[in-house]
């Protein structure tokens, strides 16, 4: 079964084009000012225009208010929202209001954390299992942290799901084999510095998902 891949936090035409050239099924644009990958909507529009219609453009948000999501929808830059630190009731409301495919990020450190995914059944279209970042971390994702994939063993998923958190070209093959993920998501694992995507690493990552 082909594995789908999201390259997240893209911010330049060159690195976006590298992701597209190497077969990414999804590209991610971050709308969260504390992130080194944050984009304004004008910049996102320039990038989004380069993306062919068969590739999904995912907007990454952290508990956004309605105005921010409305601005994103109006900008025409995204096909889906990825919502971090957002309660199930808010995910459902954003999904209903925006009409966009909605992903709920679930921060995982222990098996008990996985149970939070159940609350999103009926509220989200997909769960993104991501590593939990420390309480005092500036970002709830995009920090290259990985969780113990064995926690997913035997877990009954209530929604389609994707795997993220600390993936890189060297470990993504093992991650797919170990978890059975059919969609993987990477940000810092294909960077040379925070927020600086590396075209060679993007190519290597996408190649590793196909072998
Ligand atoms: O990438 C960011 O800056 C970011 C900011 C706020 C929320 C999520 C963010 N990134 C997402 O985090 C995961 C894992 O990233 P990494 O591969 O471990 O660096 C990924 O889904 C990004 O979309």
UniProtKB/TrEMBL annotation:
It comes from the Bacteria. Residues 6-207 form the N-(5'phosphoribosyl) anthranilate isomerase (PRAI) domain. It is an enzyme of class 5 (isomerase). Keywords: Amino-acid biosynthesis, Aromatic amino acid biosynthesis, Isomerase, Tryptophan biosynthesis. SUPFAM superfamilies: Ribulose-phoshate binding barrel (SSF51366). Belongs to the TrpF family. This is N-(5'-phosphoribosyl)anthranilate isomerase. It comes from Sphingomonas taxi.
């Amino acid at each position: 079964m082909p594995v789908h891949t999201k390259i997240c936090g893209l911010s330049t035409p060159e690195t976006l084009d590298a992701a597209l050239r190497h077969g990414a099924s999804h590209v991610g644009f971050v709308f969260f000012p504390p992130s080194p990958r944050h984009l304004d909507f004008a910049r996102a529009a320039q990038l989004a225009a380069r993306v062919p219609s068969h590739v999904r453009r995912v907007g990454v948000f952290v508990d956004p208010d309605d105005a921010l999501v409305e601005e994103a929808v109006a900008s025409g830059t995204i096909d889906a929202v990825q919502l971090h630190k957002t309660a199930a009731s808010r995910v459902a409301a954003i999904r209903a209001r925006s009409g966009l495919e909605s992903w709920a990020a679930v921060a995982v450190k222990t098996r008990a954390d996985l149970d939070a995914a159940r609350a999103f059944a009926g509220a989200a279209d997909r769960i993104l299992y991501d590593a939990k970042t420390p309480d005092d971390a500036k970002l709830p994702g995009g920090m290259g942290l990985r969780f113990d994939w064995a926690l997913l063993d035997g877990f009954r998923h209530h929604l389609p799901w994707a795997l993220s958190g600390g993936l890189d070209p060297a470990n993504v093959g093992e991650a797919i084999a170990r978890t059975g993920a059919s969609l993987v998501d990477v940000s810092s694992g294909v960077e040379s510095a925070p927020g600086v995507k590396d075209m060679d690493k993007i190519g290597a990552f996408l190649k590793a998902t196909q072998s």
